[in-house]
């Protein structure tokens, strides 16, 4: 029984280290946070962005391990959700900008001159997908 527990602990720590190293490599090698600060014209706040990612990752790990029940008013959760969504959206925009994903995708699906249609489809898909997930899985 003890060997089984030690094996599970080892696998958990090794998996966490692998995912953490991959996440740091993703942010570092691709230069997501510096590109994000360039896009938003907030280069002075680069350390705030970095700390937001670190604290957000730690809070996400803690929340996934403990399943917390926060008794917070909906009036506080709405701005919290909006700011979280804006940050994730900006992080995704920085990644997209760094990798030039949208122009490559537009060329592949033959929408070269209509990139705005592709961007709006992505934005509306994220919005409706989030609303569906919230309505079906959270309030069901």
Average pLDDT score? 80
Structural class: mainly alpha
Straight-line N-to-C gap: 39 Å
- What's the total number of strands? 0
Contiguous low-pLDDT stretches (5 residues minimum) are none
The biggest sheet amounts to:
none
The amount of helix comes to over 70%
**What letter string, H or E per element, gives the SSE order?**
HHHHHH
Percent of residues in beta strands?
A: under 5%
Shape: globular
Q: What is the helix tally?
A: 6
Cα-based radius of gyration, to the nearest Å: 19 Å
What are the key terms here?
0% strand; single chain; 6 helices
Short description:
This protein has 140 residues and is mainly alpha-helical. The chain has helices at 2-29, 32-39, 46-66, 74-99, 101-108, 115-138. 3% of the residues are buried.
Describe this structure in words.
The protein has 140 residues and is mainly α. Helix content is 82%, strand content 0%. It is built from six helices and no strands. The protein is globular and about 65 Å long. The mean pLDDT is 80.
Topology:
Layout: H1 2-29, H2 32-39, H3 46-66, H4 74-99, H5 101-108, H6 115-138
């Amino acid at each position: 029984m003890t060997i089984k527990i030690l094996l599970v602990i080892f696998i958990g720590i090794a998996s966490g280290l692998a995912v953490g190293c991959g996440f740091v490599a993703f942010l570092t090698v691709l230069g997501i946070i510096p590109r994000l600060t360039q896009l938003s014209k907030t280069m002075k706040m680069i350390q705030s962005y970095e700390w937001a990612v670190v604290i957000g990752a730690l809070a996400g790990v803690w929340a996934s391990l403990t399943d917390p029940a926060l008794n917070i008013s909906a009036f506080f959760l709405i701005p919290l959700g909006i700011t979280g969504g804006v940050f994730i959206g900006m992080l995704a925009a920085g990644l997209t900008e760094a990798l030039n994903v949208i122009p490559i995708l537009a060329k592949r699906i033959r929408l070269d001159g209509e990139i705005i249609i592709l961007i709006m489809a992505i934005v509306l898909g994220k919005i409706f997908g989030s609303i569906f997930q919230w309505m079906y899985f959270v309030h069901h």
